[in-house]
TrEMBL record:
<protein>
    <submittedName>
        <fullName>Kinase</fullName>
    </submittedName>
</protein>
<dbReference type="Pfam" id="PF13671">
    <property type="entry name" value="AAA_33"/>
</dbReference>
<keyword id="KW-0418">Kinase</keyword>
<dbReference type="GO" id="GO:0016301">
    <property type="term" value="F:kinase activity"/>
</dbReference>
<keyword id="KW-0808">Transferase</keyword>
<dbReference type="InterPro" id="IPR027417">
    <property type="entry name" value="P-loop_NTPase"/>
</dbReference>
Amino acid sequence: MTVRLVVVSGLPGAGKTSVAEIIAARTGSVHLSIDAVEESILACGLPSGWQVGVAAYEAVRAMAEQNLRLDHDVVVDAVNDSEEARQTWRTAASRTDACIEFVYLMISDAREHERRLSGRNRGLVFVGEPTWTDVKRRRADYAAWSDEVLEFDTAARTADEIADALTARLSTK
């Protein structure tokens, strides 16, 4: 049986962590979150910046590879807004012979997206919460996908409904 690496991507507030947690719980997969690792790195006193973001991606990649080699499916949640970020997961999959599935969550309703951000508190002291302006800037710079990607609109479907669709797809592969 081939192990799977499911990479749940999208802008902040799209629902990545919620969907990833549900999928991991339903499938018995390992869930790895970039934000949790970045929070830990920043809590050690390192200054915020792109280097910490890269370090978080690389740390999660290493943990994903370790778990994939142990025949554990892995679900990662990360913004994945650049080709370099996505290459991290392609590398992990190729080093472990894992099947990779990219998932992109988006919110078609801008007011709903802004509302979700305004009321959000994930308890991340060092990473913090992005503003609507931050998210709009990231959206403008979000790289187009060169991989096959499953796209879901979280304004139209709940996290449970998306997880249902993904778990059904994963069980047929």
